[in-house]
Specification:
Blueprint lengths: L2 H9 L8 H10 L6 E3 L7 H11 L2 E3 L8 H4 L10 E3 L4 E3 L5 E2 L2 E5 L5 E5 L3 H4 L6
Helix pairs in contact: 2-3
Protein name: Transposase IS701-like DDE domain-containing protein
């Protein structure tokens, strides 16, 4: 890639998704945080949803950016968007209705805070969607 083109792209405004944390911090300073924050496409990622909930107890609601994981591309798996998260009970339900409470906070390879849920093999093995 031409370095000049790269520099011009970086000089523009930050992508919308990077604006959520500063917005929430600003609203928290003024004690104006909403319980639910509705956002347009481009503002929500799984990371932003988890961070908003963990740091500010705000439910970030919006279209999650498209996943590029192998699970999305391979017919043998589900993307993150197919799972339902119950933050209060710390449970995750898969697209086929199996629920797990095996949940822990962790760090991604990039250092971001993530939630990892584990489904028992015995619950997934008989699944027809596998």
């Amino acid at each position: 890639m031409d370095p000049a083109v790269f520099r011009r792209r970086r000089a523009g405004p930050p992508p919308p998704v990077r604006l959520i944390a500063p917005i929430h911090a600003h609203l928290a300073e003024r004690r104006l945080l909403p319980e639910r924050h509705l956002v347009d496409a481009g503002y929500a990622t799984a990371r932003e949803v988890v961070t908003a909930r963990r740091d500010h107890r705000v439910d970030l609601v919006g279209s999650i950016l498209a996943s590029t994981s192998w699970q999305t591309k391979d017919s043998g798996g589900f993307s993150q968007a197919g799972f339902t998260i119950d933050w209060e009970t710390r449970q995750v339900t898969c697209p086929n209705g199996t629920t797990t409470s095996q949940w822990r906070e962790d760090r991604s390879q990039q250092g971001a805070t993530v939630v990892r849920a584990r489904f028992p093999t015995a619950a997934c093995r008989p699944c027809k969607a596998r």
